[in-house]
Amino acid sequence: MLLWTAVRRFGVAVPTAAVAVGVFGASAPLAVYGTQVYPELPAAVAVTIAIAAGTGPLRRPGIWLLAGAIVALPWLAVKYAPVAAVLAGVAVVRLWRADRRGAAAGFAAGLAAAGVVFLVLHQSTYGGWTPYAAGDHFVGGELTVVGSHPNFLGRSQRLAGLLVGRSFGIAAWQPAWLLAVPALATLARARPPGWLVLALPLTAGWLNATFVALTAQGYWFPGRQVVVVLPCAVLAVAWWADRLRAGRPLAALGALGALGVLAYGWLVVEASTGRLTVVVDFFRTANPLYRAWRRLLPDYASPDAWTWPLHGVWVVVLLAVAVWGWRAGRHSTVNSACMPSAKCTMSSSTMLQNRT
Q1: What is the 3 state secondary structure string of the chain?
Q2: What is the pTM of this model?
Q3: In percent, how much of the chain has pLDDT > 90?
Q4: What's the CA angle centered on 38, arms 37 and 43, to 5 degrees?
Q5: Are 222 and 28 in contact (CB under 8 A)?
Q6: Predicted pLDDT of residue 338
């Protein structure tokens, strides 16, 4: 689905899309959650379907498919509701701007009805608005799943930590995720058709994992809180690698991605032989590449004297590559392709002049 969406909806060349989808699909955390019974990967599939449908022509079958994917998200886990709401909002705005206000109203009304069913069934089954109402751990009320006294300022470290944390950052296990930062900056600057369907759900999911999730570290493999929106990052990186000149982004994707695929393969061998598990002690891996790479990453699980200096360095690095990506967006060739669902009525040169 990711490969099809990259090629058919965002105009990515098949070889580039295959490399991007291949390296991310065959490495952590997507490959890891593909082997475990969690709602994370089914939710990521639902988001991918929503992106594919939401960037299409939005005829009746597409609208039904999009609505089904959105409705599925909170049923898989209530923590996915913000992502579902953003996807719904983008679709309604797109229909409204296309002067299809009846379709927009019907779409919104259908989702509202599905929301009422969700709330009524949860009240009757769990005695609250979410399944957390039935959890013995949340004796102070279901909203304590966010924390009894959450320190939102302290949680802000997760903005970078979810990516570059030594043990629980996704880039620790697949360095190619770092490319999502310049890719998203370029995407935001160039604003190709459908870019909001990637940028907004990813932002919503990342902020939810940062400020709402009770913890970013626990007895699970890294990336659990953000897997749902990682398809957005995969598609953004594929688009970015295909659009910038000289092939350097694609080479970086291939090189860094290969390291991540190797790291996952190493984990598979170690877990299969009983040396470790991929839930509790995965960070004990003997992989020499990971053990060297981890020294450059801040340790948020067991902070030491190097944690915050390294955190500061990585924040600066991430901001710098984001600025570079933003500037690169001026020179990318994004206007040379249109979504297959749209009719290109202007030449690419005319579009570029109009944008300028």
Answers
A1: CHHHHHHHHHCCCHHHHHHHHHHHHCCCCHHHHCCCCCCHHHHHHHHHHHHHHHCCCCCHHHHHHHHHHHHHHHHHCHHHHHHHHHHHHHHHHHHHHCCCHHHHHHHHHHHHHHHHHHHHHHHHHHCCCCHHHHCCCCCCCHHHHHCCCCCHHHHCCHHHHHHHCCCCCHHHHCHHHHHHHHHHHHHHHHCCCCHHHHHHHHHHHHHHHHHHCCCCCCCCCCCCCCHHHHHHHHHHHHHHHHHCHHHHHHHHHHHHHHHHHHHHHHHHHHHHCCCCCCCCCHHHCCCHHHHHHHHHCCCCCCCCCCHHHHHHHHHHHHHHHHHHHHHHCCCCCHHHCCCCCCCCCCCHHHHHHHHC
A2: 0.91
A3: 77
A4: 130
A5: yes
A6: 42
Find out whether 144 and 138 touch, Cβ atoms under 8 Å: yes
Torsion angles phi and psi, residue 112, rounded to 5: -65, -40
Average of pLDDT values for 193-198? 95
User: How many residues comprise the chain?
Assistant: 356
296-346 pLDDT, tens digit per residue, is 999 998 889 999 999 999 999 999 999 999 998 776 544 434 444 433 333
Burial class of residue 67 (count of CB atoms within 10 Å of its CB; 0-12, 13-18, 19+)? buried
pLDDT digits 0-9 by tens, 196-248? 999 999 999 999 999 999 888 888 999 999 999 999 999 999 999 998 866 68
Q: Do 10 and 235 touch, CB atoms closer than 8 A?
A: yes
Tokens representing 259 are 């390291």
Query: Where on the phi/psi map is residue 99: left (φ > 0), alpha (ψ -120 to 50), or beta?
Result: left
The position carrying tokens 């953000």 is 226
Give me the half-sphere count of Cα atoms (radius 13 Å) on the Cβ side of residue 321: 14
* Chain position carrying tokens 């959105």: 70
Q: What are phi and psi of 73, to 5 degrees?
A: -60, -55
Per-residue pLDDT at 169: 95
| Rounded Cα–Cα distance for residues 50 and 76 (Å) | 15
169, 161 Cβ separation under 8 angstroms: yes
**Do residues 332 and 243 make contact, with C-beta atoms less than 8 angstroms apart?**
yes
